[in-house]
Amino acid sequence: MKLAVFDFDSTLMDGETIDFFADELGFKDEVMRITERAMVGELDFYASLVERVALLKGLPYKKVQSICKVLPMMNGAKDVVTGLKESGYKVVCFSGGFRDATQPMCEKLGIDADFSNFLHAENGLLTGAVGGEMMYSTAKGDMIVRLQKLLGIGREDTLVVGDGANDLSMFAHADRRVAFCGKPILREAATHCVDIKDLREILKIVS
User: Fold this and answer.
1) Interatomic CA distance for residues 121 and 64, integer angstroms
2) I want to staple 17 with a disulfide (CB 3.0 to 4.6 A). Which of 52, 100, 101, 171 is the partner?
3) Dihedral sign computed on CA atoms, order 47, 52, 56, 57
4) Residue of 135, 132, 138, 64 lying closest to 104 (CA atoms)
5) Does residue 29 have an active-site annotation?
6) Among 73, 60, 62, which residue's Cα sits nearest to residue 8?
7) pLDDT by residue, tens only, the chain of 207 residues
8) Which long-range contacts (CB under 8 A, 24 or more apart) does 131-137 make?
9) Domain boundaries, the chain
10) Is 114 part of the annotated catalytic residue set?
11) Which helix (H) or strand (E) holds 6?
12) Roughly what angle, to the nearest 10 degrees, separates helices 61-69 and 99-109?
């Protein structure tokens, strides 16, 4: 058995989920600027996440759900998951984003498990609060070690794929590390870089 862990936003999904939410409220440009700074490592991920989610206060939760059902899948996502599973991998998604987004897409892709955060809502509206185990810059690294122990899989049989600074902590625990259209800070830590938006390129790395 082997383990493959994918980031969600700008990796399995073509875009940033929170940008789609913010667009509904007219804050897209502001949120995109904060996201970009967090992904290149200029801002603490936890602080940036809390700041961005606070801007979503008042967004109807039904709108969140409807947006998440139609998020654009990254080119080649279905093929890479199918190919990896046929090669004996357990395929998992770690996201510093939100389960409303990861759950429906991961079900479509046939991913074995997804770990992400939760948006808090009251009376059908987002409160601007967020919680979960993927809120910190160290979260993905901590979770991948726990999964490796649970499954009895070592770093030599672990593949990780991501694009931003909050993926660095999981890169520390895998021998094959793919920066997918990645930010410079992640490319430096990668063993492989894919610079086109086609996840099928990863199958060439593991073949």
Assistant:
1) 10
2) 101
3) positive
4) 64
5) no
6) 73
7) 999 999 999 999 999 999 999 999 998 899 999 988 988 888 899 999 999 999 999 999 999 999 999 999 999 999 999 999 999 999 999 999 999 999 999 999 999 999 999 999 999 999 999 999 899 999 999 999 999 999 999 999 999 999 999 999 999 999 999 999 999 999 999 999 999 999 999 999 998
8) 132/99, 134/94, 134/95, 134/96, 134/97, 135/45, 135/46, 135/49, 135/50, 135/96, 136/45, 136/46, 137/44, 137/45, 137/46, 137/165, 137/166, 137/168, 137/169
9) 2-206
10) no
11) strand 2-7
12) 30
Catalytic residue (one of 9, 100, 114, 167): 9
The CATH number of 2-206 is 3.40.50.1000
Of 7, 100, 157, 163, the catalytic one is: 7
